[in-house]
Amino acid sequence: SGDLAATTEQVLANAQEGAAGQRGEAFFASQVAIVLCILGGGVPFVGGTLTFLAGPVAMVAGAALIIAAVSELRGSLSPWVVPASAATLKTGGVYEFVRHPIYGGLLLLCFGFGVVTSSAPRLILTAVLLLLLDEKASVEETKLGARYPEYVAYKDKVTGKLLPNFLE
């Protein structure tokens, strides 16, 4: 019990360190809010709206990304990380905004479906799929850079890896 009291005292002292507003309070507040939403089973006030709007919007956006990417790739499309021998590097169309729009579209479709069906397991599996596709894209980018020297400049220019990066 002495160790617990000493540990508690030290943790409280740690929480007082640093200047207010520079310690990462927004991260901690967000963390607490998200955990409370998880424990409470949803997002207060907007949960129904999220399910009603966010899921379908994500699914439509995902399908649009996939369709745009496939129509741009045409004969260069391959399921493998190694570019097809007949493939050419695509940097126009949707590829001007995102380097791997098919992967991003698939993630949006899966996320939207998880939201629409209110399925935590589907959302968790979508997060696992995100990790897999991010790694697959990284390996693919190594192969693309080896095959197409201009890929390095393209990668520097187009910062959106799986989804467009509109924040720049």
From TrEMBL:
One of its GO terms (cellular component) is endoplasmic reticulum. It is a multi-pass membrane protein. Its main location: membrane. The chain crosses the membrane at residues 26-46, 53-71, 102-133. It is found in: Endomembrane system. Keywords: Lipid biosynthesis, Lipid metabolism, Membrane, Phospholipid biosynthesis, Phospholipid metabolism, Transmembrane, Transmembrane helix. The keyword Repeat does not apply. The keyword Membrane applies. One of its GO terms (biological process) is phosphatidylcholine biosynthetic process. One of its GO terms (molecular function) is protein C-terminal S-isoprenylcysteine carboxyl O-methyltransferase activity. This is Protein-S-isoprenylcysteine O-methyltransferase. It comes from Zooxanthella nutricula.
